[in-house]
Amino acid sequence: MNNVQPVCVINGVGPGNGAAFARRFAAAGYRVALIARSADFCDSLAAEIGDSAHAYQCDIGDPTGVSETFARIREALGPVEVLLHNAGAGIWGDFESLELSAFEQSWRVNTLGLVAAARAVAPDMRRAGHGSIVVTGATASRRGAAKTAAFASAKGAQRNLTESLAKQLWPDGIHVSTIMIDGIVDLPRTRERLPDKPDTFFLDPDDVAETAYWLVQQPRSAWSFEVEARPFGESW
What we know:
7 helices, Rossmann fold, seven-stranded parallel β-sheet, 9 strands, single chain, SDR_fam, two-stranded parallel sheet, SDR family NAD(P)-dependent oxidoreductase, NAD(P)-bd_dom_sf, alpha/beta
């Protein structure tokens, strides 16, 4: 790492993985740009982290907004070295009960937003000859349940899109990878919903963030494309 602090952008910052990503990369010396549709949580997290964190309000499903926001980040902080696409749009329901607008929003956030963000950062990464794009995936991308018509289909498309990005960008020195989340992330709302589950049942967001940081640090001769994150005791 050189004397200039590298820049890490996190799309979809909430109290789980997004916040953990922000804290981990800030602790590693990155300037972190926190993006979320609602400003309140990002503002408070940026204040907690300190001078290296900057909050931006943006709907990742709006490609014009994404382009404008990344231009602001580049102007304020410099070229992006790491992009963590954590925005997920967890919209649940079967194909008959879902509002079509909600179905579309899931695809916009998971896929269209990823394309827009990757387009925004790839030119600088290509010029630098290095960079990382890490996508937070889900095992729903491999199977569709009745109530995951929007989420599973969008995550499946996202996984295929991420592989397409990897095959195009790896030769340019840009490491594209995905973390397949297989488990329940430890959040206040999930603890409320599952009060009888032990600590070992949940995925710790800080440990997921450590996986993301490990991916960013991997040597080029042994890059990983897809890693899975699940609690050690889960039956799979």
